[in-house]
From TrEMBL:
Pfam families in the record: TsaE (PF02367)
Organism of this sequence: Sphingomonas endophytica
Protein name: tRNA threonylcarbamoyladenosine biosynthesis protein TsaE
A GO term for molecular function: ATP binding
GO cellular component labels: cytoplasm
Keywords: ATP-binding, Cytoplasm, Magnesium, Metal-binding, Nucleotide-binding, tRNA processing
Statement: the UniProt record of this protein carries the keyword Metal-binding: yes
Family in the record: Belongs to the TsaE family.
Localization of this protein: Cytoplasm
One GO term of the biological process aspect: tRNA threonylcarbamoyladenosine modification
Length: 151
């Protein structure tokens, strides 16, 4: 398990970090995105999806909960997930994410709503908004991410 941090100057730099993540993302990967409202979780996910080939801006999946993206729209299947509206971790089981994970990468916003031990092999990214608009990106990268993150 490795830990690290980086400072992202603005929303453009946050999307660029997502683009770097897209370079190493594989089906079966889980990336959890934590941080307060407006910290940049969706901006980072949008950077991933744009780098994977999504032509339009990805909507926030807050109301859909799970927004799937499949080839040829993107180069690999991705589920962009927002668990903010879930009240009980058991509700995550109903989403079929473990089955979908066999063929897709998962980008999960508000993963704490799924329970603390849901994805122990996930690349865990946390984004905190600073007073000047910069973002502090911290991560915990399990062994499966050795050589892939950080880039």
């Amino acid at each position: 398990m490795r830990h690290g941090e980086a400072w992202l100057a603005d929303v453009v730099a946050t999307a660029a970090a997502g683009a770097r993540l897209a370079e190493v993302l594989r089906p079966g990967d889980v990336v959890t995105l934590t941080g307060g409202l407006g910290a940049g979780k969706t901006s980072l996910a949008r950077g991933v999806l744009a780098a994977l080939g999504l032509a339009e801006e990805a909507p926030s999946p807050t109301f859909a909960i799970v927004q799937p993206y499949d080839p040829p729209e993107v180069r690999l299947p991705v589920l962009h997930i927002d668990l903010y509206r879930l009240d009980d971790p058991a509700e995550v089981d109903e989403l079929g994410l473990e089955e979908a994970r066999r063929e897709a990468a998962l980008l999960v916003e508000w993963p704490e709503r799924a329970g603390a031990d849901r994805w122990p092999d996930a690349l865990a990214l946390d984004i905190a908004l600073a007073l000047d608009g910069a973002r502090r990106l911290t991560w915990t990268a399990p062994d499966a991410w050795d050589g892939r993150w950080p880039r």
